[in-house]
Amino acid sequence: MRVLIVSDSHGQGELLRTVVDRVDADHVIHCGDFCTEASHLPTGSLTVVRGNCDWEEVREEAYWDGGPHRFYVTHGHRHQVRSTLLPIQYRAQENGADIACYGHTHYPLCEQADGVLLINPGSLVDPRGFPHPSYAILEMEGEEAVTVAFYTPDGTLIPERGGAYTLHLRS
């Protein structure tokens, strides 16, 4: 299964649709700050949450069961993501999620902490502290193995981010 993870597209609906069409994922996760009308978001299998710049009434957080993995999705502004990832990690663990996706910092990150894979795809249009706008693709390889790769909006791989991870399935 292939999952596209994006965040902080800040009104660039056309670019978002271009990336979604190019990647052709089985599911799309948008971690908030889409900054358009919800009706302008891509259609299909989509999980979206509201960011601090969004006005549309969508969920503040969401859970999505993708194959053997449970994803926790939030924007992150209510979880102190600029200083620590523990609140997101704990929230994911409390609800049986082994993958947590968030945005807000505009900085791409992928790390594993106490059984939870934490993924921030960066910003699709306005990176901060990183030289490229970015998004992430998570590929499930079997039941426990996943690979995460980061790309620029034109589809160029960002080789210094991502990697292969083994996740222990929730019980």
TrEMBL record:
InterPro entries: Calcineurin-like_PHP_lpxH, Metallo-depent_PP-like, Phosphodiesterase_MJ0936/Vps29. The keyword Metal-binding applies. Its EC number is 3.1.4.-. GO terms for molecular function: hydrolase activity; metal ion binding. It is an enzyme of class 3 (hydrolase). Coiled coil: none annotated. Residues 1-141 form the Calcineurin-like phosphoesterase domain. It comes from Melghirimyces thermohalophilus. This is Phosphoesterase. Its cofactor is a divalent metal cation. PANTHER family: VACUOLAR SORTING PROTEIN VPS29.
